[in-house]
């Protein structure tokens, strides 16, 4: 096996120009993916996480070879999250709190490198990179198995993978595992992608298999009880889970069963909020889980760590009424919600 990892050593990341997304690419990133993981005592759950695995037709496969120590020799592997920090402040403290993974595997001309991972108690974020002998699409998609967390009863997630130079790509993957009980203090992670898309008609198959453990970030839980009801939908905000890197907003929402006769899929989420000092935060939705066919859901959303001087945060929940499968949708805003910060 011959790999040009020396090319990574000479890569000048300071002079890499970010690529602008086309309208079509932005739409793909915003695409909502419905996914169900089948395990013992399977619950129904949904959604709202960007681009996940896509099914396609394969080519020749070769056996992967692992080089766990190679990542430490590649300076580029040490700052993947900082590339995305230019576009999303959520990741500005990622490297400070991440667990170093440092695993590299090569198969069929593609080296996949897992750099770091963070588990905040709700979602798991992983930084990774690709080097390919074959030019892939500017935003390659995975085919096959996405990330799995041992002990979870359901899972949803997606990834962002972007080209930064010839045949080199950086990515962040995010998943939300659901557990029957409280989240464990340490999660055991498996990731076994089976192929990457060259274009819509061609993929490169391979054999990559990563296994690692990530400890949960220490934090504190603030219980809250704020409720808003509009358009036969009730949203109840129950807790703020705070750690040094992020803040997770836990909430539930219920839908009038009569409303589901007209709109079989109803979702509540919010994209931006601000604190009482005027600081704005981008929101990352963590999906939602329903055990009663869409009448009630448990959900959460993550923002960067709230400024220490903040006394409250305010946002506007948005209801998405959908007929499903692109058949039609309506969007309505709920009343603003203000949550106290202690």
How does this structure look, described?
This protein has 2 domains: 40-215, Immunoglobulin-like (Sandwich); 219-340, Conserved domain protein (Immunoglobulin-like), CATH 2.60.40.1640. It is built from 5 helices and 25 strands. By secondary structure, the chain is mostly beta strands. Mean pLDDT is 79; it is low at 1-76.
Layout of strands and helices, then pairs:
Layout: H1 6-9, H2 23-30, E1 45-46, E2 65-66, H3 80-85, H4 94-97, E3 99-107, E4 110-119, E5 124-132, E6 142-144, E7 148-149, E8 154-165, E9 168-178, E10 186-191, E11 193-199, E12 202-205, E13 210-215, E14 219-230, E15 233-243, E16 246-255, H5 257-262, E17 265-269, E18 272-275, E19 280-282, E20 284-289, E21 296-304, E22 312-315, E23 318-322, E24 329-333, E25 337-340
Antiparallel strand pairs: 1-20, 2-3, 3-4, 4-5, 5-9, 6-11, 7-10, 8-9, 10-13, 11-12, 14-15, 15-16, 16-21, 17-23, 18-19, 18-22, 20-21, 22-25, 23-24
Question: Structural class of the secondary structure composition?
Answer: mainly beta
Span between termini: 56 Å
Query: Superfamily at the CATH H level of the largest domain?
Result: bacillus anthracis domain
List the uncertain runs: 1-76
Would you give the CATH topology of the largest domain?
Answer: Immunoglobulin-like
Helix content: under 10%
Major pleated sheet:
6 strands, antiparallel
What is the number of strand segments? 25
Strand content: over 45%
Mean pLDDT across every amino acid position = 79
What would you call the shape? Answer: globular
Number of helices: 5
Structural domain tally: 2
Tell me, what is the CATH class of the largest domain?
Answer: Mainly Beta
Strand order of the largest sheet: 1-20-21-16-15-14
Instruction: Tell me which CATH architecture of the largest domain applies here.
Output: Sandwich
Radius of gyration: 20 Å
One letter per element, helices H and strands E, the order comes to HHEEHHEEEEEEEEEEEEEEHEEEEEEEEE
Keywords: Membrane, Transmembrane, Transmembrane helix
Organism: Lysinibacillus pakistanensis
Domain DUF4179: 44-132
Protein name: DUF4179 domain-containing protein
């Amino acid at each position: 096996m011959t790999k040009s990892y020396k090319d990574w050593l000479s890569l000048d990341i300071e002079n890499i120009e970010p690529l602008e997304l086309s309208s079509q690419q932005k739409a793909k990133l915003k695409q909502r993916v419905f996914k169900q993981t089948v395990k013992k005592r399977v619950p129904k759950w949904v959604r709202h996480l960007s681009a996940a695995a896509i099914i396609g037709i394969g080519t020749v496969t070769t056996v992967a070879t692992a080089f766990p120590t190679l990542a430490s020799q590649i300076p580029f592997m040490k700052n993947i999250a900082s590339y995305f920090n230019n576009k999303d402040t959520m990741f500005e403290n990622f490297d400070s709190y991440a667990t170093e993974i440092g695993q590299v595997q090569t198969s069929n001309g593609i080296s996949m490198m897992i750099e770091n991972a963070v588990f905040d108690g709700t979602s798991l974020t992983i930084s990774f990179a690709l080097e390919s002998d074959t030019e892939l699409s500017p935003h390659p998609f995975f085919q096959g198995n996405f990330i799995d967390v041992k002990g979870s009863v359901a899972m949803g997630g997606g990834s962002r993978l972007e080209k930064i130079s010839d045949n080199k790509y950086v990515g962040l993957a995010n998943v939300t595992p659901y557990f029957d009980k409280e989240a464990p203090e340490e999660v055991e992670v498996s990731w076994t992608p089976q192929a990457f898309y060259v274009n819509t008609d061609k993929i490169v198959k391979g054999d990559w298999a990563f296994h690692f453990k990530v400890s949960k970030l220490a934090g504190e839980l603030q219980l809250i009880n704020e409720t808003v009801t509009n358009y036969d939908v009730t949203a109840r905000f129950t807790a703020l889970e705070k750690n040094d890197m992020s803040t997770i907003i836990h909430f539930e929402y219920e839908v009038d069963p009569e409303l589901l006769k007209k709109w079989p899929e109803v979702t509540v989420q919010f994209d931006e909020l601000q604190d009482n000092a005027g600081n704005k935060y981008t929101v990352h939705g963590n999906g939602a889980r329903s055990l009663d066919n869409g009448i009630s859901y448990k959900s959460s959303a993550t923002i960067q760590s709230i400024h220490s001087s903040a006394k409250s945060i305010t946002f506007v929940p948005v209801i998405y009424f959908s007929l499903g499968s692109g058949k039609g949708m309506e969007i309505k805003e709920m009343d603003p919600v203000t949550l106290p910060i202690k």
